[in-house]
What does this fold into?
Amino acid sequence: MNNLGIVKRNITRADKAAVEKLSRFGVATIHEAMGRVGLMKPYMRPIYNEAKICGTAVTVLLQPGDNWMMHVAAEQLQPGDVVVAACTTDNADGFFGDLLATSFQARGAVGLIIDGGVRDVKDLTEMKFPVFSKAIHAKGTIKATLGSVNVPVVCAGAQVNPGDVVIADIDGVVVVPAAIAQQVADAAEAREANEGDKRAIFASGVLGLDYYKMREGLAKAGLRYVD
It folds into this structure.
């Protein structure tokens, strides 16, 4: 089926309790807890360092240099959603600015992830509307070519389905499929607790060499100490 010119209005969002639990953990912890998968490309960066996002995906497929579908997507937003925008081809034009952010915020959106460009960064920062993008670019866009809303997309190398959980912080962006959101949240919680214990051990002066029993393996690999 052609995925262009479609707006899916009824999507199944990840369980709210699982989303809330995932919001407590960082991207690196969630990525590790999920089996080291789900990350978007590292070129996706926050427009301000404190930006953080955790929400359910409303996906957008954009055409290059055209932000028509961003306006279409606004109508589909519910509180707690994050817009995840991909493009049919590589493009860094400024698809999004403060006016769209105002509209998104009024609908309850918690942020934007876009494999493209954004502008009005000073205003977006003052609004505290978190955006993770490939580029910051003042170049404007037109409204002429259909894309789609709430279809599966590949955004910055990651598969995103409508309703999936998307978590973003200064370390990057990770996507958790809706079907395993609770399982991943529980695994992230366990990992965080384990890391807390390790942090206390390392703070006491214990070396990772000893805690992880690395010395024998290093010796077998041929590591030599020279005085």
About this structure: The chain has a mean pLDDT of 97.
